[in-house]
Protein 1
Amino acid sequence: MDSLTDICRVISQCRNCDLHFSRKRAVCGIGPGNARLMIVGEAPGSSEDEKGLPFVGRSGKLLDQVLSNLNLRREEIYITNSVRCRPMLGKPPKLSEIRTCSGYLRREIELVKPSLVIPMGNSALGSLGFVINRKFDRVTEIVGKVIDHGEFFICPQFHPAAILRNPKRREYFEEYFRKASALLEDLGRMPREEIVRKYNSSRF
Ligand code: SF4
């Protein structure tokens, strides 16, 4: 898989896990091949499954609202998922399915080379963990933290579906994206260890 188009072609025909039984359309990642920011979600929902595009349902609308409030342009962000086929009845994907599908995320990261990856929710953290061979705590333990992986920073975030279920968390959701946006501005003009210190301090 030498290009994002190649990855998408392979995903569209993939039958490597049982999730291909429940999909109408596999959903590829979308966005520029040189995006500085990559967002990883969980799995396609019913709207995504119908349209074959990521984050076009209610979660996507919430994400769009928050991004546009912060002047983060969706067209400049690469958006993908931990699994590319909709699980039956909208259940969360199994760890084995996330592991099987994580090869696509690995290749997307290798090709896009983002500066910052935002995994939204536990499935996305699990998938990123398979890619970089690291075990993450649950999202509620590390949400909003800035982790330097060396090749890119990681800033775990709630999944927008969790915000729809619990709107009290919305201000945190916005705050963590605000932090991510500011971090992108600081990249290249501040040493990495200073970035980690600044964005993990309670003053931010
Ligand atoms: S979820 Fe991923 S690994 Fe499973 S069938 Fe779909 S594309 Fe293949």
Protein 2
Amino acid sequence: MASTDDSTPTSDPGASAPGPLAGQARPSSSAYPESVTRLIDELAKLPGIGRRSAERLAFYLLKAAKNDALALARAIADVKQRVRHCTICYNLADDPALGSCSVCTDDRRDRSQVMVVEQPKDLIALEQTGAYKGIYHVLMGRIAPLEGVRAGDLTIHDLLHRIQHPASNAGGVAVREVILALNPTLEGDGTGLYLADALRTAGVRLTRLARGVPTGSQLEYASKAVLADAIQERRSMG
Ligand SMILES: [Zn+2]
């Protein structure tokens, strides 16, 4: 992993002054005990956490009450052991026995409407509005050629399968409408175009979330991109 801080080398024993540990067969020349070095190494792998932050977090955990630190360890173990992706929509599902998530198993929802999002966290944000009563499909990313993410790396094939084979959709209901709720970015838009093309002959209504000036904001403060979108997405008033 990238490390921008050279003050605490962990893999090059020759880089630091010989200390009491020099010459021993240890994986690291760090002055920390091995278990602490391991914790720092693992924390430093987290996104946005550099070596220094990892050290800070490790020391925080060393000082923290034992129960608090173990609760964190247990939460990480639980999330990796229990949480799976829904076999229908790829949302996070907490009950491995069920296989599908709480949205897909809820028969009060309109399973003929499928809203397509990039990540489970987008689904959660949309659920928090309480405004949507259909179900979802999580792509697990977006097409990003520069990062080497192609259509085949996403769950687009599973979405098409849900549409073509109603038995594989939640409740065995046929999909009538697909609503694109991708991020309004270059890559989100590109992914939307790809999906529109892939769904052209699927026999479903294809819509996407409206964009434009958010309610309660003022035109003069809206960005150019938001205003351009608002003009393009204008609605008829009569
Ligand atoms: Zn689901």
